[in-house]
User: What shape does this take?
Amino acid sequence: MAAVQTKKYNEEELPEFTPMPWSLGEIRAAIPAKFFVRDTNKGLLYMLRDFVLGGAFWYLASFIDPFVKQENVRAAITPVGAEVLRWSLWSVYWWFQGLNFTGIWVIGHEAGHGAFSANRTVCDIVGFITHTLMWTPYFSWRISHHRHHSNHASMEKDEVYVPKTRTDLGIPHAPNEEIDWEHYFGDTPLFTLFMLVRQQVLAFPAYLLFNVSGQKSYPKWTNHFDPNSVLFNPSQRNAVIASNLGIFAMIWGTTYASTVWGTGEVIKYYMFPWLLVSHWFIMITYLHHTDKRLPHYRKGEWSFQRGAACTVDRPFLGWHGRFFLHDVAHYHVIHHFFPQMPFYNGEEATQYLKAFIGEHYAYDDRNPFGALWESYNDCQFVEDEGEVVFYRNKIGEAVKRPAEQYRVKSKTN
Assistant: This one.
């Protein structure tokens, strides 16, 4: 049987990328004005729906343990079978409540952008309540998240998911075939999976507490809880303190609930679903901003609209994602162009955006877990130089390259 021939990687044969030429005003003019209208009552109904569903899931979960502890149930399916049924039912609760909690967090995200209502006070009340309940310092996160949107895909100024460079990882400037890639990326698949799971569980609190994956130019100990942090200016100090007070209230509330109902009950009903909020939030945002097909920019080639196009729409979790997560993954590209557009207009507005920007619109309908694994393995670093750069994988290969006028002479040639 003939051996399978693998085509040798050749940078010169990669598809070329030219940044979009349009101004933000030209793109906005292509979107009907009706999609920018914010309906406060509609937003409040979505929020009410999420809280009602959360209460309903909580109520239904309260029957799980009493049901499986009944003698007739345990006799019918054996004590082992009863325990399997018990934790299976709790897993169903965690799945749906975790999605619903994430939807509540997304409502706060809408409010932070001013997309929930044209009334800033309404937005801040809604955002403070929903984000505090999900252990997010609302005002502090709103400030840094606004800066992320204002500088998305900028190597110098973006706030989160800033790619590591060749120099950051200590990779020499040499032809790919001369580099011992195993030395830099030789982890086993099992260890890679462990690191990915660690990211999914811990990345959001690590970002808030230690600026993990944030802008590398910030000082050590940058975080979202210090009113004097480089993330904030002096006029925002009181807002940061208010966010901290909300988190302290949550600490007190969960501690009190644990003394009344027991720590185990608080963990089952509340903390496990919240851990899924952290997981879904990191998975969604990581996939939004980490893709080997999308560029990052430096210096003069970056613009708001070019950065906005550096994200991906994904049909995340099918109807679960649409219903519970308020389309946060399905129509994220339009959100980066126009953060104050309410989510319920995203589907229709996206059709106009796609028609206008054409090939610059990114969409990926693959299984999101497969896409997560691929991006985690293939998006390792970008080059130190160049105003338009693409991720490279664990053997230094990219899938796109800048068009000739945006290219720099590679040191690896």
